[in-house]
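Design review, sub-item: ligand-bound model
Attendees: FS, YL, KQ
YL presented the inputs for the KG4 complex:
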Amino acid sequence: MIILAIETSCDETAISIVKRVRAKNVKGEVLSHKILSQIDLHRQYGGVFPALAKREHTKAITQLIAEALDEAGLLVERTYNAPLSLTHRHKLEKLLDREPDMFKALTILFESINKPGIDAIAVTRGPGLEPALWVGINCALALNTVWDIPLYPVHHMEGHIIAGILNYEDGIYEIPELVSPAIALLISGGHTEMVRFSSLEKYKVIGSTRDDAAGEAFDKVARSLGLPYPGGPEISNLASKARNENIIVPENYRLPRPMIYSNDLDFSFSGLKTAVITLIKKVGELDDEKKKMIALEFENAVTDVLVAKVKKACFETSSQTIIVGGGVSANTHIRKALTEMAKTEDYEIFLPDKKLSTDNGIMIAFAGLLAMEQGRAPKAKIEAQGNWSLEEM
Ligand code: KG4
Ligand code: ZN
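KQ shared the predicted structure:
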């Protein structure tokens, strides 16, 4: 059983091909893993522009699929081109009428290679930027139309949960058994959610941000410090330099820990961002020392809130297992702080391999394999859902 996964929810075009290995749990070997990041392009504008993201996904996706098939040893070129049937051509024209470049590129691909040995396709349906999501979905629908391969829509945040728990050993990834109930802290550029579940499939969102997502706060604070997009790694770098230099944050640099003692599991990061902007105005012209102190204090503030809320969530729901996922889970300091808390409280904690923290196709492939394992039905029609809740899966 081989699955091809497509992820285009934000600013990475990601394609992975995974071969399921026979086992009780969902286990698989990654045959190819391709990511084309648009970060350099969006960096010029300080953030991700949906129309630009769509254009870049459209330009890149067909070539990336061809490269992934090739890497997986599944690309067999025809000795002569076989034109698409009229029915297929008409269907594709209709499906891709807003993506003429993709129509051209896919037609060339279909006409020049044999149908590959792929048994299923997983594609991110949402949440994310709708124009970007549609590119992956329409591409998946095109592959389904011409190659007749069943299609599984994937929830991007379920992908991040799975990325959090995937075990890796001897070239094989595995979705392990979990001690339930479990808490997932999902911290990405677009979302910040606390999720509770007893089995992968039925998720309850027990907390979320009331304004900015954690990653968004990192990006905005970085921007106000004059650092490039994406801001997470930049802030993290400065903060760890400050820690290595044993810099102590002076009292007048202290930032709030928003909602840390609130009676719920919600978050709010917009006020923290505003506090940083006020602080920047107060301290005057920024130099490297000031930037380091602000980055350190900001990272500490976010970390304190995340740790406190995860601890509260575990306590209130009697959960022993913590899963962390999403781009911000690449943050070394946050990982360390959550791990220490879990150790002290005797909780089991799963953190994604750093490579799988940010968006990737492997997590979408495994979410697809899990959907199949659980008997979820393939879909002939899929629509992008920018605001798809995990509870509505
Ligand atoms: O999950 P992701 O790749 O995309 C979304 O689904 O949004 O997350 C991207 C976010 C960005 O906001 C980025 O700044 C943040 O993850 N990020 C980090 C780090 N690496 C990426 N935030 C803090 N520390 C990092 N090391
Ligand atoms: Zn993501």
